[in-house]
Design brief:
By secondary structure, this protein is mostly helical. The protein has one domain. The protein has seven helices and no strands. Helix 5 packs antiparallel against helix 6. The chain is elongated, with a radius of gyration of 18 Å.
Amino acid sequence: MTFRFNRHYLIDAVVFGTPILFTITYLIAASEGHVHWCVPPIQGCTTITDTGIYPPESYIFRFGAYPLMTFMGLLFYFFKEWLEKVAGQKSRRAQTAWYLALAACLCMDVALAVMQGKHETAGTIHAVFAALYFVLMLTSQALYTYEDFRWRQIESKTALSIRVGTNFLQLGLHQHTAPLAFRYQTQCAL
């Protein structure tokens, strides 16, 4: 019997697992009174960190986030392989994009590891490594998008437009959320 791994399951795990994990964690945090009831992505009333810092939601948050980071690292490895297949040769940019994504995932693992409760969390370490995750992941995605466009200029303009738009949306969100991360760090220090 031959085992064949379908990469689409990995993509589905990351694409659907991440918002499901955040939603479940938020609902538990709100029901426990650890965060306010609201629509976080729209109202900006809480952060991902706040929704996953107190028990019992912190256990579920980390239980789901560590595998998601592993899946994300594997996903970018498959992206690298796919780009090299499209290019018909080894691609330094695709390799660099994968290394950046892998470094980003490791940064998030560190940020998660120091989340232990409002006053026990190493706030500066958490904020720095969470910010590094977002910056490195955005850089990796932008590099991946550029390399994909470089090799497939005439194919799938819609997919490219969506990816470029997503990169700019993420850049805008990072500019908005970075001050929140460092404000959180100073609250932990108090």
